[in-house]
Write a structure and sequence with these properties.
The structure holds two protein chains of two kinds. By secondary structure, chain A is an alpha+beta fold. Chain A is built from twelve helices and ten strands. Chain A is globular. Classes of the chains: A alpha+beta, B alpha+beta.
């Protein structure tokens, strides 16, 4: 190799390496800039996420899936899935105090779709029955969980800064926060009930897989009835706190899908998205606060949500949860929406345009503005959303 | 044994028994959650708590001697209401079969959160 060729190869190699370094994180990749320790915890947590449980290792007796990755699988682990689960609650607006009963004393609000063979043999059921006290049953699809660590790191004060429960600015939008039962501000879940990512994850282990942890040391009941003897042989807690913490680390450190490069049409769509007022709830960027993890510390996340509850109108109403009334839902983050095949909390929309059309209530004004856009602009909005 | 001595022995023997039937064992649990039901005749409260979507309801008996407070001031059981956020220390009933409250402190409402930032 002559000298000139060697230099040329070196330049090409460095350029290629540099390009690879600049390659944005792909779905399922960790956040950029993790320490070696954080990266190791991400990798070890991924193994917990992939773990397939059996009754002997703690699965059930009531469950929706035998592994996190069974539902969060598309296009890669951490993504969405085709499972649809059942949540139920009782809403009694005539009652003073709290009108919402999450049916927690009757096994709610998550009613598992599957039971272990031992529970089936004992009770002759294939799934947890929803008690007659329920006033609504909701269908819930699997959300992707990319970038959730960044959402967790957004300070409460940032979320509250977007709240306008009395609609004082008269824009027809009155976002308000949900709260967990202990008073903490909620942010995770379709009704923003779970206050932290760790709570969201620990709760999912129990409610989705029937895996007890030190945080949730007791099993779900069968619509309020204790489990029959002999159907839950694994000793509690079925997963150690250290394993649950590793699982949490994996989810926390998953990078959000990087927005794609905007085409001219997508740029036009981004402008139309703002012009229609969609960005009043789907706030394009949130900023995280102080975090011990540098990759989460004071970062901007293109979340396209305000993490607040909004009334979406009576057509979409299903269950109440915490402070959320049946028609109130948290603004769904749009980061990663290009990876979804079904939209809205119950997956009833199969296209983004349908999903927009199904907005009502506080979103009616933005939906109507979308309708009045030219066909070209409407297509551009969809093209823009497909870059997120 | 004189009647006096016998009575004294009975009183001394009965005192710890009476105490254990009215007082919970030292509190072994703490929780912060929202009042779901106030059962005044039954002197009990049900509290919704849990983690994420794994919710639980804990029913605790509230003997008359239990200290219930709000902002440091005493509070009657019937002044608690669904949606109140309460911090409860409690323990198992002597002999099992449920829980007895040790202290109950009302710290806020679900609509506004707990006083002092809302962290349990």
């Amino acid at each position: 190799m002559n000298g000139r060729l060697a230099v040329w190869c070196a330049v090409v190699t460095v350029a290629a390496g540099s390009a690879a370094c600049r390659r944005p994180p792909q779905p399922g990749d960790p956040l950029r800039g993790l320490s070696a320790t954080e990266r190791a915890r991400f990798d070890r947590g991924r193994a917990v996420f992939d773990s397939v449980f059996a009754p002997a290792t703690g699965l059930g007796p009531l469950f929706n899936a035998d592994a996190c990755a069974e539902c969060h699988e598309d296009p890669v682990r951490g993504g969405t899935g085709d499972e649809v689960e059942r949540h139920a609650a009782a809403f009694h607006p005539e009652l003073s105090g709290r009108p919402c009963d999450e049916l927690a004393a009757l096994g709610g609000p998550v009613y598992q779709n599957h039971v272990t063979p031992a529970l089936k043999a004992a009770l002759a059921i294939d799934s947890e029955p929803v008690p007659p006290q329920a006033t609504a049953i909701a269908a819930r699809t699997t959300p992707d969980i990319f970038g959730f660590g960044l959402l967790d790191a957004v300070p409460d004060s940032v979320i509250l800064s977007y709240a306008d429960p009395e609609d004082r600015d008269l824009d027809g939008i009155s976002g308000r926060p949900n709260r967990f039962f202990d008073g903490r501000l909620g942010r995770f879940g379709r009704k923003a009930l779970a206050p932290t990512l760790r709570d969201f994850n620990d709760g999912a282990l129990a409610a989705e897989q029937g895996i007890t942890t030190p945080a949730v040391p007791t099993e779900e009941t069968v619509a309020g009835r204790p489990l029959p003897d002999g159907v839950d042989l694994a000793a509690d807690p079925e997963l150690s706190d250290s394993a649950a913490a590793l699982l949490d680390a994996f989810v926390r450190l998953l990078a959000p899908p990087s927005p794609l490069r905007l085409s001219r049409e997508a740029r036009q769509g981004r402008d139309a998205f703002a012009r229609a007022g969609c960005d009043r709830c789907h706030v394009p960027a949130l900023r995280t606060g102080t975090s011990p993890i540098a990759a989460l510390d004071h970062r901007e996340v293109a979340a396209y949500t305000d993490l607040l509850l909004h009334d979406m109108g009576p057509e979409r109403a299903d269950i109440c949860l915490g402070l959320a009334t049946p028609s109130e839902f948290r603004t769904e983050p749009l980061m990663g929406v290009r990876l979804m095949a079904r939209f809205l909390h119950d997956g009833r929309a199969t296209t983004l345009e349908q999903a927009i059309e199904m907005h009502n209530g506080e979103a009616a004004r933005a939906r109507d503005a979308f309708r009045t856009l030219s066909a070209e602009d409407r297509a551009a909005v969809v093209a823009f959303l497909k870059t997120l | 044994m004189s009647r006096f001595v016998l009575a004294a022995v009975c009183i001394i023997a009965a005192f710890p028994l009476a105490a254990t039937t009215q007082q919970p064992s030292p509190p072994t649990h703490n929780m912060q959650g929202a009042v779901r039901v106030v059962d005044v005749p039954g002197r009990a409260v049900e509290v919704t708590t849990g983690v994420g979507m794994a919710l639980r309801v804990v029913r605790v008996q509230v003997p008359a001697a239990v200290r219930i407070t709000a902002a440091g001031a005493p509070l009657a059981l019937n002044k608690l209401a669904p949606g109140d956020i309460v911090r409860v220390s409690y323990g198992g009933k002597p002999g099992g079969g449920g829980y007895l409250a040790y202290t109950i402190e009302r710290v806020g409402r679900m609509e506004t959160g707990a006083e002092g930032g809302g962290t349990p």
